[in-house]
Amino acid sequence: MKNWFVVYTKPRQEKKIANELTKIGIEAYCPVKVVARQWSDRKKKVEVPLFTSYCFVYLEDSDRNKVFQVSGVLRYLFWLKKPAIVRDKEIAEIKRWLNEYDHEQISIKQFQNNERVIIKSGILIDKEAIVMKQNGNQLMLQLESLGFALYVSQSNIIVNPIENKEKQIT
């Protein structure tokens, strides 16, 4: 059975590696977002990887070593001592977000423990929460108004810090 795996790449080679993997017959996906970049003489929109140094590959578990035929692939991302598998629906959700949302609004953010945030998508839109902890892209949010904690992935929900510093917990 084919699965989406995450490969770790050399820096700034994600798009090139995705193209090279495709050339050797491996389905690869490097999600990119369009951002405006300012140079001294001009401003230009460029495509940058959504996840730096990561690329997704869709293949059989038995074919995992084939990715190392491409220069720049360093290793697989592991979770609980096994290669991390990304569900099809999560890849589809990333693609949907990149098609439907303004790319300037899409980012993976680092939050501080006890930082107040506001949820800006999904069924809990406009609810305030407190970041209890962050593990990579996973957040544990405490929803005071509902009296429970919630685990969410930043790839599935938009969470923004609350700008008012008075609302920060110390």
Automatic annotation (TrEMBL):
Alphabetized, the UniProt keywords read:
Transcription
UniProt xrefs under Pfam families: NusG (PF02357)
The answer to whether keyword Transcription applies is yes
> Does the record carry Transcription as a key word?
yes
Q: Which InterPro entries match?
A: NGN-like_dom (IPR006645), NGN_dom_sf (IPR036735)
Q: Secretion signal: which residues?
A: none
Please list the residue ranges annotated as the NusG-like N-terminal domain.
1-98
Name of the protein in its database record: UpxY family transcription antiterminator
Originating species: Emticicia soli
